[in-house]
Fold this protein.
Amino acid sequence: MARLEISDLHVSVVTDETTKEILRGVNLTVDSGETHAIMGPNGSGKSTLAYSLAGHPKYKVTSGSVTLDGQDVLAMTVDERARAGLFLAMQYPVEIPGVTTSNFLRTAATAVRGQAPGVRQWLGEVKGEMELLQMDPDFAQRSVNEGFSGGEKKRHEILQMSLLKPRIAIMDETDSGLDIDALKVVSEGVNRYKQNSADAGEAVGVLLITHYTRILRYIKPDFVHVFVAGQVAESGGSELAEELEANGYVRFTGQAALA
Amino acid sequence: MPITPASRPAGPTLGGPNGLAAHTHTGAKRTAGVASHLHPLASAAVDDHPVPTAKNELWKFAPLRRLRGLHADAEFSVGGLTATWDAVDGADVRVVSGAAAKGLKGVSDYLPTDRTTARLMEANPDTLLIDVPAGATIAEPITVTLDGGDASITEAAHVLVRLGDHARATVVLREQGSATVTHLVEFSVGDGADLNVATIADWAADTVQLAHHHIAVGRDATIKHSVLTFGGEVVRTAVDVDYRGPGGNVELLGLYFADAGQYLEHRIFVDHTFPNCRSEVLYKGALQGEHARTAWVGDVLIRSTAEGTDSYEMNRNLLLTDGSRADSVPNLEIETGEIIKAAHASATGRFDDDHLFYLQSRGISPEVAKRLVVRGFFHEVLHKVGIDQVIEHITETVERELAITGY
């Protein structure tokens, strides 16, 4: 069983001139096998939460704690967090010129698994996952994310999740910019990994950050949290997503303005 | 010079496709219609080219005091450089002297744009001729090595690579050893011909080289031209591209790696005069150590006659340590809007934090992430070079360079 526990997390973004507080006391617990949807309007701090959990240097944690099975995540470097079982599927995966996808994937798998996977088994594993995600085998020989379309980049993120087998997966607006076919493929990829990880003995915990309810038709959340002004404003079940679908965020942004 | 041939080709000598007709230049020309500091007077007359000073836009980055007078009036001598090559069936490689060599200078319609090449033309050193007749296809790379034996000998050297119409060839020019040399390398590429050429500057640490490459692109010709500069104290390479008809397709690639105290400069000028031609320029460099210096100046000129031009120029520099400096100036001059593309970009910096974050977020340690990114940086250019022996050689060179800083 894995448990990601976020307690009273305060995070500021530091630019050249100013320091601005974005997260203002986030409390959230994600257990193995659970899928939590975090929904919120633009600028509410959803992506800041994702990047802070992964350890992006731009975001400074000013107070609070994040633990994975009791281990202090905030004390870990970015790569240590990944090796401990955290995975962030990014909204805007960067292009890395000259680094082939196959070399990247194998280097990452070697780091996370603690040893280089056997060549034959590894090639089969990558090929199989790529087929399931309907990715062209040529991708493996292309530079990481270079020249990939938006949909291809998101499939590549899901491919990495499938291969690195995290205990907690954070999906940062994985649905944004996808057409309906790509959205289905990506959602199926997430659901398949949820099932496969459960079958392997420890179901992944998923933190699904999204602006839209659309993806929740394909990935069923156990919990829905409305994120406003750097905090969880309200938590509930999938009925909360339905309310947002019908009424938008007005009720919550109004509340935030009063508070 | 003479370039002393250390080995002769075994095969029969073939006549050049264009013969050795005398080639004379009269008068002077300035890049017509464009008043720009980037286009100096082109003239065979040495006196038309005053000794450059640091105030001259084209020489402002170069350490003039370290050029051993090559840019000015250092007297050319002979006997320092040796050329060797292995015979390749179908290609005529030989050294031409005297009047015949005079006739080979300027075959690519080249007129000197600086004093050093004007003096070289006047001095008429031997010409190392690499001749591929019209219609010939030569699969095996033609590899010529220029070896410098003595940096105290100041020398002028001329190389002519000539491909007849519809010829196909791969040429590798390797430069090594100690030299003080002004170099003119002409490429005359016929209609529909296909040339892939790589120049590897692997000079010893005491070499100073001023090199000028002039590429004449035939109608519908395809040229890939790579400049790989690693060795030498001061190496300045200018690459000029002139199209002789529509449909020409040129890819200019460059990789350089400057260590402490090294100065490496590359200047590119692509002159689009004909319609429907393409040029793609990608130069990347890394620097490490105190006073490692590089300069890159690119210029793509798209004239009003060059409708349908598709051009792209890019320079990236990676600073691996403090104390190094890279200048990068991409220029673009456009006289017609009827083009497909004209893009230019330049970037100089340290590791991209977002690259490192992405890799680390997948469990990869910072050290391994940097190793991946820096090798990727070179690989992006190198895999495009398309000559196995060159890729292998440069990969080894890059590994040796990176070991200095511990990557």
Q: What stands out?
A: The interface with chain B takes residues 54-57, 77-79, 81-83, 88, 90, 93-94, 96-99, 103-104, 107-108, 111-112, 143-144, 160, 164 of chain A (CB under 8 Å). The radius of gyration of chain A is 18 Å. The mean pLDDT of chain A is 94. The longest strand of chain A covers residues 19-31.
